[in-house]
């Protein structure tokens, strides 16, 4: 347009800004906005809100607050949409006090808060464990004649359920019904999950059946929550009943459904059954993801089926599944625990070749493996190499190394490492402390733990 001598108008530039923001190219959007202002164009409130929304969505919280102040200074009084956008951004970044301060400013300016800004704050409070404050805000909404939505109530129901105070969640549901709002699938799912978290599966089933009775059809998440609850309660038969029920409802089991069931099977030592389920999963057209594969890999390792684990690991590689440090750690752990330290070491050395970095958990596995194999010097060498590889030893690594020294009769080295561990602010765990108490009793020495 510029090459043809045609000056873009406000609408064209506003459309470009909107496009940049949608593509998360916020720097380009801000530059174009500044250029508009410099050339004398007058961006409207929609453009200001677009930039503000773009800054918030890309995590530029400080810049969003500065931009909001600039709107106020330029006489472009931000509306409730603009303030809600920034409040939501602050809450999502854990800056609840700042969000509440901004909320107070909104009310002081005489701007009537709407349901959106209240929902943002209630959600933020629930996430930070301030459930009573969230309930107070909900009551404030009622007092201000703001119609509460199903979403508002469900935020609180979910929060109380996750906290373990289901009686409070049930009270919120009762309040909903009194207000003429019937719970929807998302609300029922929150309640079911709350009971599952407390292993009250009969109660969870009761809510599940009530949901159906009330004409609210369960979705696949409802089934997944129930199946997970039954699996954790080691009631695999009930989980499988629900799994077979899914197809009768017209729903399709997803990757989470299969993964949850496989996890339950593996935890009960039924790895062969989990393998059969994986075959059914593939046959149904569902593609196993890394989580699904890792569950079965872990099942093989914990069941002592290392040959199958190695074959399956290779199959994962061949299928194009992008292996991560968790997958490698599972297999390395299985190899170490069954005395295949040489193969474990080869896999560990392979990590850097595949662009992966061992984490503290991977290091702890290898250190423990070397110590159990009777090579504490090699374990200690690996322990000392952690810092050079940008992975500082944590409490677990120190305890594993100290216990390894004890196991191999290196009591002097264990004592020195304990002193170092304490100086770094870590504590001996129960097993490490017991080993030192035994040493004190045997040697009659005074060692400060």
UniProtKB/TrEMBL annotation:
UniProt KW keywords: Repeat
Domain of life: Eukaryota
Gene3D superfamilies recorded: Tetratricopeptide repeat domain (1.25.40.10)
Membrane-spanning segments: none
PPR repeat residues: 9-43, 44-78, 79-113, 114-148, 149-183, 184-218, 219-253, 254-288, 289-323, 324-358, 359-393, 394-428
Xref: InterPro entries: PPR/CCM1_RNA-binding (IPR051222), PPR_rpt (IPR002885), TPR-like_helical_dom_sf (IPR011990)
Pfam families in alphabetical order: PPR_1, PPR_2
NCBIfam families linked: PPR (TIGR00756)
Name of this protein: Pentatricopeptide repeat-containing protein
């Amino acid at each position: 347009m510029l090459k043809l001598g045609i000056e873009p108008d406000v609408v064209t530039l506003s459309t470009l800004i909107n496009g940049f923001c949608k593509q998360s190219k916020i720097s380009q959007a801000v530059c174009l906005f500044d250029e508009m202002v410099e050339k004398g164009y007058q961006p409207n409130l929609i453009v200001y809100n677009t930039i503000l929304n773009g800054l918030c969505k890309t995590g530029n919280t400080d810049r969003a607050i500065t931009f909001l102040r600039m709107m106020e200074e330029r006489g472009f009084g931000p509306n409730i949409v603009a303030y809600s956008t920034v409040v939501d951004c602050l809450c999502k970044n854990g800056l609840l006090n700042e969000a509440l301060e901004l909320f107070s400013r909104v009310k002081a300016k005489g701007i009537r808060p709407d349901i959106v800004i209240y929902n943002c704050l209630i959600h933020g409070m629930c996430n930070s464990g301030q459930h009573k404050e969230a309930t107070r805000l909900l009551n404030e909404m009622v007092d201000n004649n703001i119609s509460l939505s199903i979403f508002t109530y469900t935020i609180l129901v979910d929060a109380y359920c996750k906290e373990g105070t289901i009686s409070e969640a049930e009270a919120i549901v009762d309040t909903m019904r009194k207000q003429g709002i019937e719970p929807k699938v998302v609300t029922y799912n929150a309640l079911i999950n709350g009971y599952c978290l407390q292993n009250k599966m009969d109660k969870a089933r009761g809510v599940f059946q009530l949901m159906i009775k009330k004409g609210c059809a369960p979705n696949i998440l409802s089934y997944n929550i129930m199946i997970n609850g039954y699996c954790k309660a080691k009631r695999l038969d009930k989980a499988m009943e629900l799994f077979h029920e899914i197809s009768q409802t017209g729903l399709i089991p997803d990757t989470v459904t299969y993964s949850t069931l496989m996890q339950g099977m593996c935890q009960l030592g039924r790895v062969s059954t989990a393998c059969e389920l994986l075959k059914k999963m593939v046959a149904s057209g569902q593609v196993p993801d890394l989580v699904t594969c890792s569950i079965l890999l872990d099942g093989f390792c914990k069941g002592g089926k290392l040959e199958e684990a190695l074959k399956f690991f290779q199959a994962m590689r061949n299928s194009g599944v992008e292996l991560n440090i968790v997958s490698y750690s599972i297999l390395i752990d299985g190899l170490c625990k069954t005395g295949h330290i040489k193969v474990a070491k080869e896999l560990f050395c392979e990590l850097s070749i595949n662009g992966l970095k061992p984490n503290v958990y991977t290091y702890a596995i290898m250190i423990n493996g070397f110590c159990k194999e009777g090579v504490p010097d090699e374990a200690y060498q690996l322990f000392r190499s952690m810092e050079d590889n940008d992975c500082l030893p944590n409490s677990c690594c120190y305890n594993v190394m100290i216990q390894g020294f004890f196991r191999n009769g290196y009591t002097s080295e264990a004592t020195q490492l304990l002193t170092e561990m304490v100086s770094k602010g870590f504590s001996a765990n129960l097993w490490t402390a017991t080993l030192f108490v035994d040493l004190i009793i045997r040697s009659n020495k005074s060692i400060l733990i």
